[in-house]
Amino acid sequence: MTTSSGRKLAVDHAIPGGPSVLFDAVVVAPGKAGLPDLIRNGPAKDFCRDAHAHLKVIGFDANGAELMRAAGVTPVPNDEGHISLDTKSAVAKYIATAKKHKIWAREPSVSPNV
Predict the structure, then answer these.
(1) Is the separation of the CB atoms in 58 and 51 below 8 Å?
(2) pLDDT, one tens digit for every residue, the chain (114 residues)
(3) Which CATH number is 78's domain given?
(4) Would residue 6 count as lying in a domain?
(5) What distance in Å separates the CA atoms of residue 56 and residue 103, rounded to the nearest whole number?
């Protein structure tokens, strides 16, 4: 993978082979150039939906919010596990919240019959 600054990064998982269930928390921060392809990519949208349904803490940037909405997951301000990563304090909040492992308060909205 190459970052927008041209730096090469090793990739551990491809989206279809690295579902969100494998991670304790996730960050959805796609680059702007790749966003249109991800919005049309079923596994990318499944990743977002599954992370939400599995009560994961989800950090996101503006592009990530757009991908989440395309997946049917609207970032909810009162969901403590939906964290817009637009400031340093937000990143610290993401890390602290991720240590909780799951956002149990979200469960009734994703599993209403439980």
Answers:
(1) yes
(2) 777 788 888 888 888 888 888 999 999 999 899 999 999 999 999 999 999 999 999 999 999 999 999 999 988 878 999 999 988 899 999 999 999 989 999 998 888 776
(3) 3.40.50.880
(4) no
(5) 6
The total number of structural domains that make up the chain: 1
Does residue 82 sit in helix, strand or coil? strand
Q: DSSP letter at 46?
A: H
Has residue 114 been placed in a domain? no
> Dihedral through CA 71, CA 100, CA 12, CA 42, nearest 10?
-10
Expressed in angstroms, the distance from the first to the final Cα of the chain is 40
Q: What is the domain range of residue 60? A: 20-107
Number of residues in the chain: 114
